Amino acid sequence: MLLATLFAIPLLAAAAPALSGGCQQLTPSFIGVVNNALADKSYKLIGEPKVTTAFKNAEVEPAAIIETLIKFSGLPATAHKCELQAFFSKGYGKLHGYAKLPTEIDVFHTDSSLVGTNDTIALTWNNSPQSTTSVGTVSVVLPKDGQIFPMFNNDVTAEAGKFDCPPNEVTFRVRVPEGTKKGGLEFRQESNPFGGWILNACDSA
Predict the structure, then answer these.
(1) Closest CA to 3 of 94, 82, 128, 89
(2) 3-state DSSP call for residue 10?
């Protein structure tokens, strides 16, 4: 299900340019997937790439579900307003949709924050932070139908939502929308060309 072989090359150090007007762009300090079929086992990929996967297949019994936990660390102490978005720059080609276009994923706040890094967090379905309130829905239209990993011809920004910045760090949980029978979305956090999550932390609205 997860495209581990294709995503096994070393992850580039993600970096996004700072915004003007008292805003700072952050990339995730941790991304990890959880699988309901491995309730008490950590579900890690070869090479530990940062891959976001939201997938559900309700056509089997029990339903197969994969969700993703995303953590941002080092939020500026002066930041008050935050905006989460998925950004895919021109030339990015590490996104795969498991459903007809467009593909949507829901993003939620969580009841606790992850502690540690990609190397130290032993994340499982049963010990992972649970979803609370909704941040919003990310809707992505793949640039070309019929390709496993289509390449974007233009920069694409998919906004998830805005909220008051918490102190220091924040953790989100990503899953497919309620009612999904079979489908989902998967993409890898890359820096060149950039693709993945960005958190804009601003001093004011």
Answers:
(1) 94
(2) coil
Instruction: Tell me the pTM.
Output: 0.84
| DSSP string over 31-47 | EEEEEGGGTTS----TT
Which DSSP state fits 88?
A: E
Q: Can you give the pLDDT at residue 121?
A: 65
Q: Give the pLDDT confidence of 88-131 residue by residue, as tens digits.
A: 999 998 888 886 656 899 999 999 888 765 555 678 899 899 99
Q: Distances from the Cα of 125 to the Cαs of 32, 34, 42, 46, in angstroms? A: 11, 5, 8, 19
Q: Could you give the domains of the chain? A: 24-202 (2.60.120)
Contact between 123 and 45 under an 8 Å Cβ cutoff? The reply is no
Cα distances (Å, whole numbers) of residue 2 to 25, 157, 173 = 28, 24, 17
Look up tokens 């233009």; give the residue: 154
Task: Determine the Cα–Cα distance for residues 156 and 91; give it in Å rounded to an integer.
Answer: 11
DSSP strands (E only) in the chain: 23-26, 30-35, 51-57, 64-72, 81-88, 95-97, 103-110, 131-140, 156-164, 170-175, 182-188, 190-191, 194-202
What the block records as the tokens of 179 is: 């009612």
